[in-house]
Amino acid sequence: MSVTIYHNPRCTKSRQTLALLEENGADPKIIEYLSEPPSATELKKILDMLGMTPAQLLRRKEANEAGIDATQDDATLIAAMVANPIVIERPIVVANGKARVGRPPENVLEIL
């Protein structure tokens, strides 16, 4: 089984989610998305797997600080998220053609 985590090692929830994955036998590919952000195409795929809109995946406080208006169209928000990955909610785990946000960390167990 291939598991990927879009991870921010400074985030408590992200660290907890990574530990939970490892405790459950996963050996995830770790992508530190702040230094290696997903492309617009990758982000669209992740959003589809999550069943979310770009606005739903935005971290509101960080988006406001970056001057990103959550009411913009999806393409504009995706471009802004790629350019400013700090505004993407974290962590995101992808496994078995599905994705979940690890808030709370236990959310990710349903796709393993």
Overview of this structure, please?
The chain is an alpha+beta fold and 112 residues long. The protein folds into two domains: 56 residues, 3-Layer(aba) Sandwich (Glutaredoxin), CATH 3.40.30.10; 50 residues, no CATH class. It is 35% helix and 15% strand. It contains four helices and four strands. It has a four-stranded mixed β-sheet with strand order 2-1-3-4, with helices on both faces. A hairpin with a 2-residue loop joins β3 and β4. It is globular and about 40 Å long. The model has no long low-confidence stretch (mean pLDDT 97).
Short descriptors:
4 strands; 4 helices; four-stranded mixed β-sheet; Glutaredoxin; 112 residues; alpha+beta
Can you lay out the helices and strands and say which pair or pack?
Elements: E1 3-7, H1 12-23, E2 29-32, H2 40-50, H3 60-65, H4 74-83, E3 92-95, E4 98-101
Parallel strand pairs: 1-2
Antiparallel strand pairs: 1-3, 3-4
Helix content: 25-40%
Distance between the termini: 8 Å
E-strand count: 4
Q: Radius of gyration over alpha carbons?
A: 13 Å
CATH H-level homologous superfamily name of the largest domain: Glutaredoxin
The amount of beta strand, in percent, is: 15-25%
Write down the CATH topology of the largest domain: Glutaredoxin
Low-confidence stretches: none
- Level-2 CATH architecture of the largest domain: 3-Layer(aba) Sandwich
SSE class: alpha+beta
| Tally of individual helices | 4
Describe the main β-sheet briefly.
4 strands, mixed
Integer count of domains: 2
Kindly provide the name of the CATH class of the largest domain. Answer: Alpha Beta
- Residue-averaged pLDDT: 97
Order of helices and strands: EHEHHHEE
Shape: globular
Strand order of the largest sheet: 2-1-3-4
